[in-house]
Design brief:
By secondary structure, the protein is of the alpha+beta class. It has helices at 73-78, 96-106, 115-118, 120-129, 150-154, 156-159, and strands at 12-15, 20-22, 35-43, 48-49, 61-64, 83-92, 140-141.
Length: 174
């Protein structure tokens, strides 16, 4: 952040991965300290949602620039702090047949770099039946609704390739 011109102590900064999309409304929230953003997570496509009780991984953080004087960004992401619900979306393992194997091999969690998780036939099965990439839990099927990003709601033709195309009978609908 030292390379960012004119950054000020009270400027808001986000520490997140590229597939973690925060909702612009989070900018208007008034927090006096860093907070974790409890994003709704999806695997494989925009329809397979991770159940809330299974979504326990590292969270993006919203903080002020001054908070980074005492903590590195990843340290903030690992700390226990106030958790803000529904501030955005985490879309992971999109385009899984082309990139799923590569992502697992490059993943920080090397314990998942196993043949079973990279096998294309097994990946297809997990997608079809709504199972997370590492066979830990079932996913919930969600139709696109008002809880999704505005762009997703307004441009169904542009996001069609990111929607579940399998057998609807396999889906567990909310």
């Amino acid at each position: 952040l030292a390379l960012v011109p004119d950054i000020h102590e009270d400027d808001i900064v986000f520490m997140s991965d590229v597939d973690e999309i925060w909702n612009k409304v989070i900018l208007s929230y008034d927090f006096s300290c860093p907070v974790k953003l409890n994003m709704t997570q999806y695997f494989w496509n925009l329809n397979w949602q991770v159940p809330n009780h299974c979504n326990r991984g590292s969270r993006p953080v919203r903080a002020r620039y001054s908070d980074l004087h005492e903590n590195r960004p990843q340290e903030l992401r690992a700390k226990n702090m106030q958790l803000v619900g529904r501030p955005g979306w985490h879309f992971s393992f999109l385009n899984p047949l082309d990139l799923g194997k590569t992502k697992i091999e490059a993943f920080a969690h090397t314990e998942y770099d196993k043949p079973d998780y990279k096998d294309i036939a097994r990946i297809r099965y997990r997608i079809e039946y709504g199972i997370d990439p590492f066979s830990r839990f079932p996913l919930k099927f969600r139709n696109i609704d008002w809880t999704y990003p505005e762009f997703v709601q307004a441009h169904p033709e542009e996001i069609d390739h990111l929607l579940y195309k399998g057998n609807a009978f396999n889906a567990r609908v909310d």
